[in-house]
Amino acid sequence: MYRLQFILIFLGYFLLFPIFSKxxxxxxxxxxxxxxxxxxxxxxxxxxxxxxxxxxxLNGRTTKENLYEREVLRIPKGEEKVSVSAExxxxxxxxxxxxxxxxxxxxxSELTYDPHKGIQFQRGVSxxxxxxxxxxxxxxxxxxxxxxxxxxxxxxxxxxxxxNLERIQVTEGQQVKPKDRLGILVKDKGLYxxxxxxxxxxxxxxxxxxxx
Length: 212
Hints:
- The protein folds into two domains: 26-88, Membrane-bound Lytic Murein Transglycosylase D, Chain A (Roll), CATH 3.10.350.10; 104-210, Glucose Permease (Domain IIA), CATH 2.70.70.
- The chain is 17% helix and 27% strand.
- It has four helices and twelve strands.
């Protein structure tokens, strides 16, 4: 049941709509959290409505360090504050997700009658798809219209989606660096590329040109 809910959330809201976050009733925030398989700094921080950097600093760590299953993290309670310097928040400039620049054949659109939450590249000579930012592979799956796809989770609530893959060369939970191989494109399609920050769908073309 958990697996099915997970897939529905990612497919329904990453590929077609902005990321969805449910409103929850006010409950007391626990003082600690035990890490489970598949957790990340960014996922846990989102759950408790704090920044990943704050959570990591409170536990004497950085978001670059790996989490370990069943370890216990301290969670800020109430008015407890943890200051994070501006220098500690990594500002990444995305790298191009393909070996060479390809024409965008379908652009990002927020038009209600013709929405397109990502961009579609023209199929080029090289079929290699690469990670645009460092992060964690949080979902690998197949969906009609997008073929095989990979979703990466990055810092500061940012996610990227890579679709139209014939072969996938990463696994869920794997940490990747910029330009690491994610997979190989299908023969007749270019890369589908999407970026989100929390609820907001971002224009990937502008981000690749100007940075985040």
